[in-house]
Each structure stands twice: as C-alpha cells, then as structure tokens.
Amino acid sequence: MQQKSPQHLIDRMRETLLFILLTGVITIARADDCQALNFGHGSVVCVCNATYCDSVGRTGLPDPGQFLSYVSSKTGSRLVKSQGQFQKNSTGAALRITLNPSQKYQRIKGFGGAMTDAAAMNILSLSSGAQDQLLRQYFSPDGIEYRFVRVPMASCDFSTRLYTYADTPEDYDLQNFTLAEEDIHMKIPLLQRAQALSAQPLNLFASAWSAPAWLKTNGALIGKGSLKGKPGGKEHKTWAQYYIRFLEEYGKYNLSFWGLTSGNEPTAGEMTNYSFQALGFTPETQRDWIALDLGPGLHSSSFPQTRLMILDDNRPLLPHWAKVVLSDVQAARYVHGIGFHWYLNNIAPPGITLTTTHHLYPEYFLFATEACAGWSPLDRGVRLGSWDRAEDYAHDIIQDLNNFVTGWTDWNLTLNQDGGPNWVKNFVDSPIIVDSSKDVFYKQPTFYSMAHFSKFLWEGSQRVGVSFSQHTSLDISAYIRPDASAVLIILNRSEEEVQFEVWDQTLGFLPGSAPPHSILTLLWSRR
Residues in domain Glycosyl hydrolase family 30 TIM-barrel (predicted)? Predict the structure, then answer.
C-alpha cells in the first residue's frame, strides 16, 4: 500500500495534456481533489475522513455553445471537470456520434444503494464527523445525489443475526410485530439524516428476505421453504399484512416508501440447503399471492400508491416470470414494475430479457434492484482500487439503460475491509469501504462509476437515440434532461485513446477524446 506514485502523477499529467491538445478543452483544477491511495488492485481509492473528502460539487450548466466534460480513469482521474466549445465544422474525427433527440425511449427514475444492517453498522462505526462526510458523499447536492435507497425488511445475510419483526409463533394478527434495534437505532436515524441532506425526497423501497419461521413450510428463516398453505389462506394474508405493518411502523418515523418488491430472490427459497434467509415462490405462487393477498391488502391500506415490483431476482428469469404474473389481470392490476438483479447477466443477453420484456409489457417499468462486485467465487470480496470493477458497473448500467431500464440500485452502501459484516460470511465489495480503526473511508472506483450516472441523469431524463459513423468498442448512452440539456455517457474499456466528435444538429460539433480505461460524462445546454 503506498501513496500515489510519481509515475501515477506523470500518467495523469500526460493524459490531461493529451486531452487538451486533442480537443482544445481546458481542465478546471479543483481544490478538493482525491487523496489517492494505491492498494495494488489496478487503480486508486480516494481517502476521506471527518475533515476532508474530495467532492464533485454542484454541477451547473455551461454557457450556450459550451460543454462540460467529467472524466474518471484507471490512471487516477476522478470526475475531473473540463470545459470546451462546440465548433461549427467537423473535427474530422473518424468516429462521429450523432445525437438523435427525436428518437425517444424510457425516462429515468434514478440510482442508489441499500441501507442494510451491515451498511448502517459500518457508517455508525465512524466518528460523527466522518459519518456526516460519508452520507454527504452519497446524498447531498455536493455529492453524487443518490435518489433511491433499498431497505431490507428485517434481517438478510448482511446482518449479524437472524430475526424478523414477528418471531412470536402463531401471531396471525401480528399483535407482536416490532421493528428491531437495527431499524430503530441504526437504519432509521441514518435514513433520516440522508433525507435531510438530500435536495429532493429520497425514494425508499423495501424488500423482505424471509417470512417468520412459523409461517413457513420448513420452520426456518434459511434453506428451502415457502409459505404454508395456499394463496388466499391465513399464512399468505398474514405475510401480506406484515408488509403493511412495516410501512406503518416506518411511517411513525416520518419515512415513507416509494416502493416495495414482492420479496428478494424468490428462487433462492426453492433451493435445497440455501445458506441464508430466503422465501420461495414460483412465478405462479407469486402471481396468486399478489392477486389474492398482497395487492388487495396494499390497495385497502393507507399505502395504495406504493409501487410494487415483482421478481427482484436474476435477469435470466425474464421474460418468463413477467409473462406468468402480468398475463393474469387480477395480479397485474396491482403491479407497477419489474425488479431484477445482475448476478447472472453473462448468461442472459439484455435484448432477449430486458427489451423483450419491455416490448411485451411497456406499461411496467424495469428497475435494477441489486448488484455488487466481489460476489463471484473466482473474484471474491473487497478489492481496494479495482478499476475492472468500475468498468463492470458502468458497462452493466449502460447496457441496462440502453435496454429500457429506468434505474439501477447498488447493494450495500458501505462495508468494512472484510466485505461485511455478514453472518454467513458471504463477503462482497462496496463502493465505499470503511476502516473504523483509522476513522476513514475509501471511495472505490465503483463509487465514481455510479457518480457518472447518478449525478447527471436527473429523474425524468429521457434516453434518446445515438448513431455512429463506424463500429466502435465504446459503450455509449444519450439523454435529454428535463431542463432540455443533453447528457452523453461514454465508457472506454480498451487500452487505446479514442478520439471522436459528437454532432448535435442544434449546436454543431463537440470535439472529444476518451482516454484508455475511462468513463466520460458530457453535459451541454441545447436551448
């Protein structure tokens, strides 16, 4: 582990000079740059403490005819801001990217992460000053402005113990339903603080991992097990009421929920010897539970506007799962969207899963509800400074958004250096890693990957068409925001610098260059 090396600084300077020479863009130095630390995993983390943290700051629009560029790269750039000028004539770049605003696709809802028990414990392990700094990084107008927070209902694997809110057997009326210490003393206060920092209301959505053991066929929170009885029966009705009681209890703390999922990874509870909390549903039993119990329960409660997302499981299950649930009119009337996870995306191309589902059911939004790095047995746990993982995030987000997805939610907002705590030792990575022994936290490359989207793609931004003058290895996605400005996000996963120009018919030609292994966000006004 060492401070940023002289060679690293030389690479950064060379990259910046080349960018200026090629594009005429002037880089704007910031006083609050990344305090880089290299742990030997390909790039750097940015170190933050109670008194210092780099920040992207507030992003205004440039003057008409100008554009802003923000770049993060393997060589250590982190949202480095530059400004340039549109040109009347073509730069002659081989790659021309043409903006086609008349081709309109889905509108963006937003981006975020999960306030798990583990995330809350890690934030609270820091001093109050460092806690505030971390929350500001995610939620404030000076930070990356997350709009969504996923909240587990009771325990999951990223808890330190197994519990639900209704562990008293045979309590079908849920008279003993009680939030846990983890909610009252950890998650709720942090969510309130995050909301206070945010310029706009946060969109919370809840997911349950398991029903209480006494409601389940296996009598345990873990392993293969589903609800006893049948949809419409007392166990299924109690489980639906459990969701409503959760919303009521959080409401007492002035926290309202934008949405719910029908339950985390229902296929996990269909697997023999599954190692942590799960509740099994098939698409057919989920359909019938929604139609007979959860849907009518929500509809007649104080929360009829709460958006219900089905599936909340891996992408290869689409479009089949959606077909089973949404072809039933009784279930479909209560559903608003389809949530999915990223863990098996490599075996499920986005076109045949996401785009097919969108075209079958265009009135239901698609939303990525969970993703993390370090989950694979081949590449497990925390990798401080991994640029590969930042590229994995950006590639997946662009791919999803280019296939009608409206938002993307990361998993744990923060973890410790082991990738936990996790009671079953299912350690993974997170965009922010806490080292409480030093009262510091490390912003990973994946944090900046998220920032290139969450900071710039406001709610209501609409994806629009782009076309290319030749084949390119770049990943590209384009948007028109509600303020009529344009956002273009470009990922270069290659070893080569790629020069390009963007043609916006209202303004002319934007000269650009994507450094090797970089993420680039371009922003300009079209008025």
Answer: 108-457
For residues 122 and 439, the answer to whether their CB atoms sit within 8 Å is: no
Using left for φ > 0, alpha for ψ between -120 and 50, and beta otherwise, residue 265 falls in: left
Catalytic residue among 265, 363, 459, 501: 265
Domains 66-106+463-525 and 110-459 share a fold: no
> At 435, phi and psi to the nearest 5?
-120, 90
Residue spans of beta strands (DSSP E) within 237-377: 257-261, 307-314, 337-341, 365-370
Distances (CA, A) of 189 to 132, 184, 487, 515: 12, 7, 34, 42
**Distinct helix (H) and strand (E) counts, the chain:** 14, 24
pLDDT classification of 20: cutoffs 50, 70, 90: very low
Q: In what order do the strands lie in the sheet with 432-435?
A: 2-3, 36-38, 44-48, 440-443, 432-435, 415-416
Question: Is domain 66-106+463-525 classified as CATH 2.60.40.1180?
Answer: yes
The whole-angstrom separation of Cα 341 and Cα 358 is 16
- Topology (CATH level 3) of domain 110-459: TIM Barrel (3.20.20)
Q: Is 495 annotated as catalytic? A: no
370 is catalytic: yes
Instruction: Report the pLDDT value the prediction gives residue 14, as an integer from 0 to 100.
Output: 54
With contact defined as beta carbons under 8 Å apart, do 380 and 420 qualify? Answer: no
Structural tokens at position 92: 């002659």
The catalytically annotated residue of 370, 495, 496, 501 is 370
Per residue in 364-398, is it b (16+ CB within 10 Å) or e — as a string? Answer: bbbbbbbbbbbbeeeeebbbbbbbbbbbbbbbbbb
Sorted by where each begins, the domain ranges of the chain are 66-106+463-525, 110-459
Measured between alpha carbons, how far is 116 from 155 in angstroms, rounded to an integer? 8
E-strand stretches of 252-291: 257-261
What is the mean pLDDT of the segment spanning 487-499?
Answer: 98
The Cα 416–Cα 424 span in angstroms is 15
Residues 6+ apart with CB under 8 A from 6: none
Under a CB-based contact definition with an 8 Å cutoff, are residues 264 and 318 in contact?
no
Strand-pairing partners, residue 178, are none
β-strand partners of 434: 416, 441
* Cα pseudo-dihedral 328, 331, 337, 340, rounded to 10: -80
CB 98 within 8 A of CB 408: no
Give the neighbor-by-neighbor strand order of the sheet with 475-480: 26-28, 80-85, 66-73, 518-525, 485-492, 475-480, 462-468, 95-107, 498-504, 508-514
pLDDT band at 527 (very low <50, low <70, confident <90, very high): confident
